[in-house]
Design brief:
The protein is mostly helical. Helix content is about 70%, strand content about 0%. Helix 3 (about 65-85) packs antiparallel against helix 12 (about 310-335), helix 5 (about 100-155) packs parallel to helix 13 (about 350-365) and helix 6 packs antiparallel against helix 13 (about 350-365).
Length: about 400
């Protein structure tokens, strides 16, 4: 039905991995996931709602170097202002700074506005993140649906079924590679060859269709599957036009998933809004740090003497609020591209294992039917009588 694939080489050296992209370590992980009934390894919410949350570090915003650099800069600004004004405090300093309640009211007005803008920005980014997750699921489900309907309604040709699964995995792999590609590194299509998901011949044909646009190449793989479905229909393997339309709908589901991801990644939130928001956050952090440093100096001397609780309160706010706002901005930057390989991003291996094992399971299910299905013959006479 199609030409034999002779250029694909197994990654881990085994003959069973002819169409696989899993390394030895990933194959071990596949077995572990399989032994756990395919349940993904997510974080434990029960741990986060207790005091154990203070011991969680991996995959959190605390791993961001940018966050700690920004916090260090705010610390340098705070202590510079505090030390200078503390040692060179002039007469009437408390009247110059004003009441602490007045300072808090000014900061609260600023913080409320930024909080609203940050909330809207975060909700928008998380919504886009979830839509990209659904688009990935469309690619996965398109492959599963197509494999199931072909294996149980058209043909059990291993070349056909293996290539359906391989092309779907390759299209998703190209998306991950596009986000994780390093400058000067191999293009995604070349990386797909090394991963065993595409052959050199297929890459050459992809380059003839489109040389540089990765997402177009990922969609082209689904166009090849659409052509294959049409060949099945033309050769009489389908059960008629409705069956053919259902197969094409499965192909379109996978292709539309690629198009949706491309639309979100290539259309960021307007620059003007993001620039204004980030500018206001940085301005707020600087003003807050300076004012809290002055308030700390005011509470560290004068007629009332040193007030430890007041100094601690103002110093804590000087560090906590900028830290929080910077952390929210960093979290937003991470979810804008969930394919980049960050600790909180989508895990390619999970989807690859899911697609690989589902494809194998659907094919084997055609030969390993339970007795109630395998021995069922049906009774046309009873069915016709019930219909009447």
């Amino acid at each position: 039905m199609s030409e034999e694939i002779s250029e694909t080489k197994p990654i881990s050296g085994g003959t069973d991995d002819l169409y696989g992209s899993l390394s030895a370590r990933e194959k071990k992980r596949e077995e572990e996931i399989a032994s756990e009934d395919g349940l993904p390894r997510n974080y434990d919410i029960n741990k986060l709602i207790t005091f154990n949350v203070f011991g969680v570090y991996g995959g959190t915003v605390f791993q961001s170097r940018i966050l700690w650099k920004e916090t260090m800069m705010m610390g340098v600004l705070y202590w510079s202002v505090f030390i200078f004004t503390y040692f060179f405090r002039w007469k009437g300093f408390s009247e110059f700074v004003g009441k602490e309640s007045t300072i808090r009211a000014f900061i609260a007005m600023f913080s409320t506005l930024i909080g609203l803008l940050l909330s809207f920005y975060t909700a928008l980014n998380l919504g886009r993140w979830w839509q990209m997750r659904l688009a990935v699921q469309n690619i996965v489900e398109g492959s599963k649906k197509l494999t199931m309907m072909v294996a149980h309604g058209c043909s059990q040709d291993p070349t056909l079924l293996q290539n359906i699964n391989r092309y779907a995995r390759a299209s998703l792999y190209l998306i991950f590679c596009a986000s994780q590609m390093e400058e000067g590194g191999d293009p995604p299509r070349k990386m797909a060859v090394k991963a065993g998901l595409l052959t050199h011949q297929e890459v050459e044909k992809l380059e003839k269709a489109n040389l540089h646009m990765v997402y177009v190449q990922a969609e082209t793989l689904w166009a090849w599957l659409a052509n294959w479905v049409t060949r099945l229909h033309d050769q009489g393997f389908t059960k008629g036009p409705p069956h053919y339309c259902a197969l094409m709908a499965a192909v379109e589901q996978g292709r539309s998933g690629v198009a949706t991801i491309q639309a979100y990644l290539e259309t960021p939130i307007p620059l003007g809004y993001v620039h204004l928001l980030c500018l206001m956050v940085k301005l707020h952090n600087a003003i807050l740090t300076v004012l809290m440093a002055l308030a700390s100096v005011m509470l560290a001397g004068g007629s009332k003497g040193f007030q430890p609780v007041g100094v601690f309160r103002t110093a804590f706010r000087a560090f906590f609020m900028p830290f929080l706002y910077n952390a929210i901005l960093i979290l937003n930057s991470e979810v804008t591209d969930p394919f980049g390989g960050d600790p909180g991003d989508f895990d390619w291996n999970n989807y690859d294992v899911n697609l690989t094992m589902s494809g194998k399971s659907y094919v084997v299910a055609a030969d390993e039917l339970p007795d109630c299905i395998g021995t069922w013959k049906g009774n046309k006479g009873d069915a016709a009588q019930k219909k009447v």
